Amino acid sequence: MAGIKIRSFSKKIINYLSDNSGFYHIFVLMLLVNIPRLILESVWIIKTAKSQIIILGIKNEFEWRKYKAGDME
Prior knowledge:
The chain is mainly alpha-helical and 73 residues long. Helix content is 90%, strand content 0%.
């Protein structure tokens, strides 16, 4: 949802600047508008990675307990 709002906001800014400014201003503002989106995507990637690490840790703990109990082949 936030990505959609950021994209529509960035399109409005770029359209406004393309009518009123040069290429340099458009380039700088494109970077400024995309920074929040990149931060949101980075946070999502980090959260996903953390959850995968936790899942792998739980799985490995379960496998280790099975091994210690002698249930592993």
